[in-house]
């Protein structure tokens, strides 16, 4: 079993079609995936699915991606979870807010699969490095 097949990726996006397609594409590349269509259901899915990484839309009604990320970062159990913002917003203010909120990477929609896979790898590696430093 390769390392990818052991990794769980949660996709949280209020655009159900986009979320489902992202999840299916990631599964085709060997990841285990789960999908949630709102911030609140995404938080619940994070608790039950225990993902290694979350591909998280920012612009969702109700609880937006920033609020989801802040809630996750406030819980020590989720320190090792890589967060990747996946949004149509790429302006300077958004980019800074993504960093300030604790995301590990930022992808601008539409993005090709290679960009998504690269961002997930980078974010997972970044979290791994941060955890290694804090554990020592």
Task: Describe what you observe in this structure.
This protein is of the alpha/beta class and 136 residues long. The protein has one domain (4-135): Response regulator (Rossmann fold), CATH 3.40.50. The protein contains five helices and five strands, in the order βαβαβαβαβα. It has helices at residues 16-28, 39-49, 65-73, 92-101, 113-135, and strands spanning 8-12, 32-36, 53-56, 82-87, 105-108. Strands 2-1-3-4-5 form a five-stranded parallel sheet, sandwiched between helices. Helix 2 runs parallel beside helix 3 (65-73). The longest helix is centred in the C-terminal third of the chain and has 23 residues, at 113-135. The mean pLDDT is 92.
Task: Determine Rg (CA atoms, Å).
Answer: 14 Å
CATH homology superfamily name: Response regulator
Strand content: 15-25%
The level of helicity is 40-55%
Class from helix and strand fractions: alpha/beta
Mean pLDDT: 92
Brief write-up:
This protein is an alpha/beta fold and 136 residues long. It has helices spanning 16-28, 39-49, 65-73, 92-101, 113-135; strands at residues 8-12, 32-36, 53-56, 82-87, 105-108. The chain has a single domain (4-135), classed as Rossmann fold.
Question: Which labels suit this protein?
Answer:
136 residues, alpha/beta, Rossmann fold, five-stranded parallel sheet, 5 helices, 5 strands, 49% helix, globular
Give me the secondary-structure topology.
Blueprint (H helix, E strand, L loop, with lengths): L7 E5 L3 H13 L3 E5 L2 H11 L3 E4 L8 H9 L8 E6 L4 H10 L3 E4 L4 H23 L1
Parallel strand pairs: 1-2, 1-3, 3-4, 4-5
Helix pairs in contact: 2-3
